[in-house]
Each structure stands twice: as C-alpha cells, then as structure tokens.
C-alpha cells in the first residue's frame, strides 16, 4: 500500500512500508527507541526531530542510519531495521528518496560536539502529530504525515523496540 500526501517543504510524498517497493535512497530517517522511549534531537535551526541525514559517497543506508543517530544523539545502537521508505517529488527537482529505520538504543553517550544538534530528549509518550504541527519547537521535517504514518505503523505491529 502506498500513502500520498503533501511534503513538509512542498512537493508530493509517497510512503510505503513494503520493502519490495524500495529504491536506492540518498537519505535516511531513524526512529530510535531507548527502553521503550522515542529519542529525539534538537537541531540548532529546525527544532526537535528524529535523527536523519544524507548518505556519504559509498556508504550503505543502514551505516548512514547508525552514523547519523550517533552524531545527532550520542546513541549507540544494538539493533536496527528498515521499516519504510518515502519519496518527495517536486516539479523541476530530483526525487528525494529517504529510507526509514527503527532502532533500539543500547547506550546513550554524551552528545558529540561539532554537529548540528544541541540537545536530546526521551519521550515516553510519543508526541502526537497534531501537537507537533502546532508547536513551533518541532522541526518542519516532523510536520508532514511521514511521522504520523510511521508511528501508527510501529504501534500497529507492536514493534519490540518500543517496549521496555
């Protein structure tokens, strides 16, 4: 099944939870859980968001997810898996393809310095999409329906990473 909606920065987003529909991504987004709590980082310009970022040349998407989670939160992962992928299409621009991962955090270290995040927070109660949309402290990246569909999917499948 494909979900379609407007993107946070414009364009149209297509989201799938079916691995056989996945394409080669250039970006990743990670939903990391530590003892059942969702871990978010505060980006110095955008605000609160789940970790994510751009793949480096020659880097595998899962390696990007592990690296970005550490750089943005100080979290060391002990388990990670692909959960979804979305594509943002904007007229006159190259498609942005982002693989979404769910991860289990083994250890929280000090936030590494020199990166773009200033703080981390654990959310026992995951922020409600409607609260995120109305709260300016959250990143625009969190305000489209990717977050909504992914957390609903995680809840529906009762993913073990979300349990204590």
From TrEMBL:
Keywords: Hydrolase. SUPFAM superfamilies: Nudix. Gene3D superfamilies: Nucleoside Triphosphate Pyrophosphohydrolase. Residues 23-148 form the Nudix hydrolase domain. One of its GO terms (molecular function) is hydrolase activity. PROSITE patterns: NUDIX (PS51462), NUDIX_BOX (PS00893). The keyword Transmembrane does not apply. PANTHER family: NUDIX HYDROLASE 23, NUDIX HYDROLASE 23, CHLOROPLASTIC. This is Nudix hydrolase domain-containing protein. It comes from Collibacillus ludicampi.
């Amino acid at each position: 099944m494909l979900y379609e909606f407007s993107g946070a920065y414009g364009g149209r987003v297509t989201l799938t939870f079916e691995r056989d529909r996945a394409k080669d991504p250039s970006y990743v987004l990670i939903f990391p859980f530590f003892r059942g709590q969702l871990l978010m980082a505060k980006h110095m310009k955008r605000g609160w968001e789940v970790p994510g970022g751009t793949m480096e040349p020659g880097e595998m998407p899962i390696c990007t997810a592990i690296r970005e989670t550490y750089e943005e939160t100080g979290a060391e992962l002990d388990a990670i898996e692909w959960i979804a992928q979305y594509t943002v299409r904007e007229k006159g621009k190259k498609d942005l393809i982002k693989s979404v991962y769910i991860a289990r955090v083994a250890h929280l270290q000090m936030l590494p310095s020199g990166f773009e995040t200033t703080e981390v927070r654990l959310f026992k109660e995951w922020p409600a999409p409607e609260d995120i949309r109305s709260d300016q402290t959250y990143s625009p990246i969190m305000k489209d329906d990717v977050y909504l569909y992914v957390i609903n999917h995680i809840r529906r499948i009762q993913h073990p990473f979300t349990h204590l």
